[in-house]
Amino acid sequence: MTPRGARGDRGAVTAEIAIAIPAVVLVLVASLNGLGAGVALLRAQDAAADAARALARDASTTSAAGRAVAALPGGALRSDRSGDVVCATVTVRPRILSIPIALEARSCALDGGR
Q1: Per the domain annotation, does 6 fall within a domain?
Q2: 5 within a domain of the structure (yes/no)
Q3: Which residue windows are transmembrane per the record (predicted)?
């Protein structure tokens, strides 16, 4: 025998779990994608630092861009010189929940090639 008030709650736990499990999976996937984006940003920072040092040693822009793209597939390099400093900016576009976001990392080095 079931208590009189329990009949209306039959299946409530199943419905709550059916809502909770997809929400937990969504949060887990978003967290893993965010972690991947963080790793991509760290790799972009390393690639920007390498490219800035290479450009400061008077390497060609094409060579530095090739090294940056080799270190970070899908990355793009932009460089500029200002006085005694050469700066490299690497842009990468990871996806979080299928939404592409643009992340930029910038690094500068003293221009020793001039």
Answers
A1: no
A2: no
A3: 12-32
Residue 34, judged by CB atoms within 10 A of its CB (0-12, 13-18, 19+), counts as middle
pLDDT band at residue 72, thresholds of 50, 70 and 90? confident
Structure tokens at 104: 């930029």
For residue 93 the two structure tokens come to 């576009």
Identify any residues that bridge with 21 across adjacent strands, giving them in sequence order. Answer: none
In this model, does residue 70 exceed pLDDT 90? Answer: no
Question: Does 3 map to a domain?
Answer: no
Q: For the stretch 55-89, what's the b/e string if a residue is b when 16 or more beta carbons lie within 10 angstroms of its beta carbon? A: bbeeeeeeebbebbbebbeebbbbbeeeeeebbbb
Structure tokens at 30: 């978003």
Let me know the angle formed at the C-alpha of 42 by 70 and 74, rounded to the nearest 5 degrees.
Answer: 35
Structural domain span for residue 41? 11-110
Query: What domain count does the chain have?
Result: 1
Q: What single-letter DSSP state applies at residue 84?
A: T
